[in-house]
Amino acid sequence: MRILVFQHIACEHPGIFRDFLAADGIAYDAVELDAGETIPPLDRYDALWVMGGPMDVWEEDLHPWLVTEKAAIRDAIVEHNLPYFGLCLGHQLLAASLGGAVGKMKTPEVGIMDVDLTAAGLGDPLLAGLAPRQQALQWHGAEVTRLPEGAIVLAASPLCPVQAMRVGQRAYGLQYHVELTDRTVPEWGAVPAYAQSLDAALGAGALPRLEKQAAALMPQFNKTARRLYDNFMQSIGYAERAAQ
Asked: Mean pLDDT throughout 158-181?
């Protein structure tokens, strides 16, 4: 089994999921789109994961590769029926690639915040076993404003009604972050765009406070990530493939 990963900045990678993949002996190829790397043929892969990044989905003039990426996402889901897992920008790209819309938020979400599962989310295989209310890292100023056709909202927050969604049966997007390691917050805080949004939302010098808060919650974050990983792998039949 092999997974294709789209990255948009080097520090936003699969995070703790890399440990789970390594333990299961699952290979993945990361394509750094912002560095000009080329998307390989999709038929080589069993799933597509799309990570976060500091750019917005509509900034195609600044980042022309977004056009190619959206087309590849659409092709992966519609033509190849690949399972999809998107986080933050990857969540927004799922919507934008399949006919939904993404726009700026009135109030950005930055920091550790609550996310509530919807009735649909409570019954969805990806979120099975998770608490109805979760604490999660948020670091975004854009949101899905119109769902793609066939999408179902799985989680919401007061500031962002579409925190998680499923499109069809195999494509998932989460606006919030679950892939955290002990290096995530300091590494992201070193990105100028992220540092600016953090200080704007939480006040100057907020990074050390957020690092401390995230560190205290890291066991919970990692437990949630493990559950999501296991649920995703079960949903795409990994155990059956591994047994063959």
From this structure: 97
109 is a catalytic site residue: no
Which of the residues 8, 13, 140, 177 is marked catalytic? 177
What are the percentages of helix, strand and coil residues in the chain, rounded to 5? 40, 25, 35
Judge whether 80 counts as a catalytic residue.
Answer: no
Q: Where are the domains of the chain?
A: 2-243
Q: pTM value?
A: 0.96
Domain formed by 2-243, architecture:
3-Layer(aba) Sandwich (3.40)
Residue 205: Cβ-neighbour burial (10 angstroms; 0-12, 13-18, 19+):
exposed
Span 118-138, pLDDT tens digits: 999 999 999 999 999 999 999
Of 88, 109, 143, 160, the active-site residue reads 88
Annotation says 177 is catalytic: yes
Checking if the pLDDT of 34 tops 60, the result is: yes
